[in-house]
Specification:
The complex is a heterodimer of chains A (276) and B (440).
Chain A (H helix, E strand, L loop, with lengths): L3 H32 L3 H5 L13 H9 L2 H32 L5 H10 L9 H11 L5 H25 L3 H9 L4 H12 L1 H17 L2 H6 L7 H6 L9 H21 L1 H8 L6
Helix pairs in contact in A: 1-13, 3-13, 4-7, 4-10, 7-10, 8-9, 10-14
Chain B lengths: L1 H14 L9 E7 L2 H17 L2 E7 L1 H13 L7 E5 H9 L20 H5 L2 E2 L2 E2 L2 E6 L1 E6 H7 L9 H11 L20 H11 L16 H17 L9 H9 L5 E5 L3 H4 L11 E5 L14 E6 L8 H11 L2 H11 L10 H5 L1 H7 L3 H10 L23 H17 L4 H18 L6
Parallel strand pairs in B: 1-2, 1-3
Antiparallel strand pairs in B: 3-10, 4-5, 6-10, 7-8, 7-9
Helix pairs in contact in B: 7-9, 8-9, 17-18
Classes of the chains: A mainly alpha (276), B alpha+beta (440).
């Protein structure tokens, strides 16, 4: 009886784990399945789980109507650009806050976090006008900048918590051995917190890839990423679910693959320092 | 490590260099609806003919409206050609934000446009939006259900007729609702429909002093009729049904009647889009003896050029002239099928033998519905505004949305008719006063 309990518990937890995973994955699965249905089948009620005809028509139409590759390149540039520049700013910032804290560090951290508390739409009009005056509307530098600024607080916070896990004594020992700040960062701190740095980068790439408010508001054609590509298939008139699903599938496949390949890093990073 | 840093650097460099725009390239911002998608598809022909490259921003209607408003109000000039509806055209033209479109070539034939459609896009007789499609209201009904119930649709049904028919053909057990009408709140959803019923009953939004008339008898009568017919014969959860939801309901055989935009007629006869293509009939918008002329609303989608566009204005005009020409309508007919030819814009389309052949069940009725409306004088009494189904003042978006929300609340039973009329009247009066139309 006693040995049965842990087995039962384990089975229950496994079941729960699968249930949650399926629940989270179901919308994506449904989107992919809908993309292979005809428009009439996509809105049919009661809905059919499997497409009856497995048509590729929606993909062809999406391909014909939009320049997928251009949007894809913009998404890649936006995600990588905002991540790399963001890391260049966030790593030194998190380092100084974790290892050289000043009296106001805590306030600065809270202030950075507070910028995420305001809904983005609250800043839309001034940002739009600034972008217009600076000639940044519908440009990749412009949209990269705004996404970078939006994600920077999260990057600094994540890196700050990872860096806090590294014993300051190790860095001090380096310094005593004559290492410069640069060497200390590159040869000691970054290798030691690599899972944390990697997961920060990955999370930021995912956030930037999926960003839909600023990208829709500040881009038109030249800098429009995949979020704008998806938005162009939503319609208040006529049938559009299947085409919208095909566009969504095309847009999320790259980031799903990246997430799949790097899931070990991501999980390791997110649980970094959780168990000591 | 070094290699990967270099790779990132390259990606970054790529990412921060924006492609330069060529002079002969125009950006078109448009809604994502069937007609506009056909235009996008066929525009390759225009590109080949003129060498002008077209770039498209296709967005859902509400998102597009927000983007265009921000762009045009700040003169950002991101878009060379924009798709706008009648309300935006009249409002923005008066603000000086749209370029006049009165200098197209002789072949363009301005007089070929249906007068009501052209008027709904013109200020002082000058066209600011070139009609891409025009619409009014029409009653779609299921001939098979009418036959089964032993009733016949008259040539000019009245509101009482429609209510009686709706009740007779309702068959809840088999999922058939007698009538589907817009219930979703919004100045572009339920409000224009109710506004049209109010006009049909001899009512209006404002008197000549801009005092709201929402507690007047026509409003009470229109809403009583609407709430009653929806309660007895409408679908469940009607307050969330807008144009699109009702289109899906009707085309999948769940509605006996549906009063909505004429532009849908062609789609309902297309077996690819509709399961009731064989059994759909068409009748005019229900009239009353109070205002037999109020035969629907007058709305159009049009192509326009913001005044902030200077360099590309000539190319933009060239495109608009092509996309709203007689030849374009013929091109759509030949390539995509005549059922999908631009509806409600040019008389020549309705006169074309090919169009008459396929659109015979509805062509004359649609043309009559659109032609019967006078957008410059939509009501029985004198009013200080124009627009049938909307009012050409900037405040209408807010007014229409709030009043629409109140009507939806009555539809769900959350509020009574009296409360809705009272609250709407107070809200509209307060808004107009704040906007400076008068002092209390």
């Amino acid at each position: 009886m006693r040995s049965l309990r842990p087995t039962l518990f384990k089975a229950a937890m496994t079941f729960l784990g699968w249930a949650v995973a399926l629940l989270l994955f179901f919308p994506i699965l449904w989107t992919v399945l809908t993309s292979f249905k005809s428009e009439v089948e996509a809105i049919a009620f009661p809905p059919a789980f499997w497409p009856s005809g497995w048509t590729l028509e929606n993909y062809f139409e999406v391909q014909e109507r939009s320049e997928y590759f251009g949007h894809f390149l913009n998404s890649v540039a936006l995600s990588l650009g905002s991540t790399v520049i963001g890391m260049l700013i966030a790593i030194p910032a998190a380092w100084s806050m974790a290892f050289q804290p000043a009296a106001s560090t805590r306030h600065v951290l809270m202030w950075m976090l507070s910028t995420k508390m305001m809904p983005a739409v609250g800043a839309l009009v001034p940002v739009f006008l600034i972008f217009k005056s600076a000639g940044l509307l519908d440009t990749l530098p412009g949209i990269t900048l705004i996404v970078l600024v939006g994600n920077l607080p999260i990057m600094v916070w994540m890196l700050y918590t990872y860096f806090k896990e590294i014993p300051a004594d190790i860095l001090e020992a380096c310094r005593m051995d004559g290492a410069t700040v640069w060497k200390e960062l590159v040869h000691v701190l970054l290798p030691m917190s690599l899972p944390g740095v990697a997961s920060t980068m990955l999370l930021n790439i995912i956030l930037a890839w999926n960003e839909a408010f600023w990208t829709l508001s500040l881009t038109a054609v030249k800098a429009a990423p995949l979020s704008a590509f998806i938005a162009s298939y939503s319609s208040p008139q006529g049938l559009f679910w299947a085409k919208l699903s095909a566009a969504s599938t095309l847009a999320i496949v790259p980031i799903l693959i990246i997430g799949w390949i790097s899931q070990k890093q991501l999980v390791r990073g997110l649980t970094f320092g959780a168990v000591k | 490590m070094r290699k990967s840093i270099m790779a990132l650097g390259v990606a970054l460099a790529l990412g921060t260099v924006a492609p330069a725009a060529s002079a002969e390239e125009i950006v078109i911002a448009t809604v994502n609806n069937g007609d506009m998608i056909i235009m996008q598809k066929l525009s390759k022909e225009f590109e080949e003919k003129t060498g002008i490259k077209l770039r498209w921003v296709v967005l859902e209607e509400n998102t597009l409206r927000e983007r265009l408003a921000a762009d045009i109000a700040t003169k950002a000039g991101q878009y060379d050609v924009i798709s706008v509806n009648s309300y935006q055209t009249l409002l923005w033209a008066k603000m000086g934000w749209l370029t006049k479109l009165d200098d197209f070539s002789a072949d363009y034939d301005y007089d070929d446009f249906i007068t009501a459609t052209r008027d709904s896009l013109s200020v002082d007789g000058v066209m600011y939006g070139a009609p891409f499609y025009g619409e009014s209201l029409i009653t779609f009904y299921r001939k098979d259900l009418f036959e089964k119930a032993g009733i016949e649709m008259p040539a000019k049904p009245t509101m009482d007729d429609i209510a009686g028919f709706a009740e007779k053909i309702t068959d809840r057990e088999n999922g058939i609702n007698g009538i589907c009408l817009r219930g979703k709140p919004g100045w572009g959803e339920n409000t224009p429909l109710i506004t049209t019923f109010v006009s049909a009953l001899g009512g209006e939004w404002f008197d000549m002093e801009w005092k709201p008339r929402l507690t007047s008898e026509p409003w009470r009568e229109a809403l009583t009729w609407y709430l009653d017919v929806m309660k007895k014969a409408g679908p469940a959860g009607a307050a969330t049904n807008g144009y699109n939801e009702n289109r899906v309901l009707f085309s999948s055989g769940k509605c006996g009647m549906w009063i909505d935009a004429t532009v849908t007629a062609g789609y309902l006869l297309d077996p690819k889009e509709s399961q009731v293509s064989e059994t759909t009939g068409f009748a005019p918008f229900p009239i009353t003896d109070k205002n037999p002329d109020a035969a629907g609303w007058s709305g159009a989608w049009a192509l326009a050029i913001p005044t902030s566009v200077t360099d590309n204005a000539t190319a933009a005009k060239k495109f608009i002239e092509w996309a709203t020409s007689k030849e374009y309508a013929r091109l759509v007919g030949e390539r995509e099928g005549w059922l999908l030819a631009p509806s409600g814009t040019r008389k020549s389309t309705y006169a074309a033998a090919e169009y008459q052949q396929v659109a015979e069940p509805f062509a004359d009725k649609v043309l009559a519905a659109i032609s019967a409306v006078n957008p410059t004088k939509p009501t029985v009494n004198e009013v200080p505004y124009t627009g049938a189904g909307f009012i050409d003042i900037p405040e209408f978006q807010a007014l229409g949305t709030t009043v629409g929300q109140n009507i939806a609340a009555a539809l769900t039973g959350a509020r009574t008719l009296d409360e809705v009329l009272e609250e709407s009247q107070i809200y509209v009066e307060r808004t107009m006063e704040r906007a400076g139309y008068y002092k209390k």
